[in-house]
Write a structure and sequence with these properties.
It is a single chain. The protein is α/β, with parallel strands linked by helices and 172 residues long. It has a single domain, classed as Class I glutamine amidotransferase (GATase) domain (Rossmann fold). The chain is built from 6 helices and 11 strands. The model has no long low-confidence stretch (mean pLDDT 97).
Length: 172
Amino acid sequence: MSLEGKKVAILLEQLYEDPEFWYPYYRFLEAGAMVTVVAPAVKKYESKHGYPATADLAAGDADAAKYDAVIVPGGYSPDHMRRSKELVSFLKEAYEQNKVVAAICHGPWMLASIGALKDKKVTAFYSIKDDLVNAGAEFVDEEVVRDGNVITSRTPNDLPAFCREIIAALGG
């Protein structure tokens, strides 16, 4: 499961769900990927539980063409992410370039914001089901769903399956 030479961006904003950020962060480092934390600005962001993470790169300076995958953690952060024009543009460019775009929990809200859900089969935390369906998705209650270059999961309990699916999509 080597991801040597692969570049993965993980999006960050305030009130992220701790395991949904840190588990993929360390899992992809462990697999040999270069991991970059992309946020609206290079600064510290607090999680839902008070654990800070620092962005490596501002979204306005990020080039989607340089990454193989972009991961969107959940928590309350996707609601804040959607307010950043640069973060939304970065994710949309990655999606349109057919990069792996993966979102967990409330992360698929960002997929709705970039128009990536029409006719896609997805999963997420159940409370945003209506938003995803209204964005054109077919919602299912499964631990991980892959539809083309879009990978989605529901909760922190799904992180092992979520990360395995991303690694498989990256050829690892």
